[in-house]
Specification:
alpha+beta; about 40% strand
Length: about 80
């Protein structure tokens, strides 16, 4: 599912009843909020040499959506 990942939208997301739900950002390709029954996590997906790598940026209660996006952009602009 695609959403604009920001503080308000992430706060409004319900925890998954079971399993997982992946929300992809409409603004930053590869930026994801992964929702499971007890937590929400910012993740970034990147493709390199035809392999997909998934990197955990942080839990939504430990880093803001804006901070996670900024960290992701800074990391990949230096790569």
């Amino acid at each position: 599912m695609k959403i604009r990942i920001n503080k308000q939208n992430v706060d409004d997301l319900d925890f998954a009843e079971k399993g997982q739900i992946i929300y992809r950002d409409t603004d930053l390709i590869g930026f994801i909020v992964w929702v499971i029954p007890k937590s929400k996590t910012f993740i970034v997906d990147r493709k390199y040499n035809n392999e997909i790598f998934r990197v955990v940026v942080g839990q939504t209660d430990g880093i803001s959506a804006a901070g996670a996006k900024k960290s992701t952009i800074n990391h990949f602009s230096n790569s």
